[in-house]
Amino acid sequence: xxxxxxxxxxxxxxxxxxxxxxWVETPMLRMFIDTFNxxxxxxxxxxxxxxxSWGKWWYFTAAMLLVALVYGFVIKRPxxxxxxxxxxxFLSVASMLYAMYPIHLMMQVSI
Length: 111
Prior knowledge:
The chain is mainly α and 111 residues long. The chain is built from six helices and no strands. The protein has helices spanning 2-25, 28-39, 46-54, 57-74, 79-100, 103-106. The longest helix has 24 residues, at 2-25. It starts with a helix and ends in a 5-residue tail after the last helix.
């Protein structure tokens, strides 16, 4: 179970690193900002603006979560602590995805 949680955390954090790379090194982020400015009267939603402004700090978040996961795995912490770290990794990625696709606002826009 411990190895499975470590693997899940690694996969989730790898996705976060790939998503951060797409935000920082490609014009993807600029496209989202332009889309938000075109769709919503108030411009970019607050959470999206905050998440986008972190930029390369998302790499740091992924690295720290990975270090905590490996450390917890090596010193044989209880499964519950590894599960909490995997959940934190998942929430980190989910927050990045939510910044790109704020569902509650998308449902209010008439096309």
